[in-house]
Amino acid sequence: MRSARFARSATAAWSGEVIRGAGIVTAGTESFALSVTFPRLSGEPPATTTPEEMLAASHATCFAIGLRSVIGARKGRATEVRVTATIIAEKAAGAIRILSSHLHGVVDGLEGIDPGQLPDIARAAEEACTISNAIRSSVAITSEVSAI
Q1: Which one-letter DSSP state was computed for residue 93?
Q2: Closest to 72 (Cα-Cα) out of 136, 121, 19
Q3: Taking every pair of C-alpha atoms in the chain, what is the biggest distance, in angstroms?
Q4: Which of 5, 7, 23, 83 is most buried, taking the most CB atoms under 10 A from its CB?
Q5: Contact 55, 99 (CB under 8 A)
């Protein structure tokens, strides 16, 4: 298979100081524009997000696509795949460090594949996930997938 290079971008515009400031991050495709803030321990202002939450969204999306891909490659079908990625971070000494990402997947309407194969399918999807590959060397990644 030939390789194909591509690029994706997003632009963040920030106003104000770090703690009380805010910004907007816009996808290069203009598919989204989100209000962003500095991660607070006491919760975020309504309708805003943080880099950690965007990482969780990216990881969930990547893993969900991977699950569908592996299920399809193994001649299975599913009505829907839902994935929740939970990022655990630590704020200390003036810095935030991502510690782990846990992927929890639910496959609805699984057909053509024994549910007992889901741990292996999850492992294959996680190993192929672009986001997992980007963070694996510094972040613990766990996954679990079940069928309903």
Answers
A1: T
A2: 121
A3: 54
A4: 83
A5: no
Q: How confident is the model at residue 37 (pLDDT cuts 50, 70, 90)?
A: confident
Q: How far apart are CA 100 and CA 92, in angstroms?
A: 16
Write down the pLDDT at residue 140. Answer: 96
Angle of the 51-73 helix axis to the 118-128 helix axis, nearest 10 = 120
CA Rg, the chain, in Å?
18
For residue 53, report the phi and psi dihedrals to the nearest 5 degrees: -70, -35
Q: The tokens 């106003």 sit on which residue?
A: 15
Q: Write down the residue that tokens 């929740």 correspond to.
A: 84
Give me 85's structure tokens: 């990625």
pLDDT, mean of residues 37-47: 74
- Angle, alpha carbons 97-89-47 (nearest 5°): 115
Hey, what are 104's tokens? Answer: 């929890």
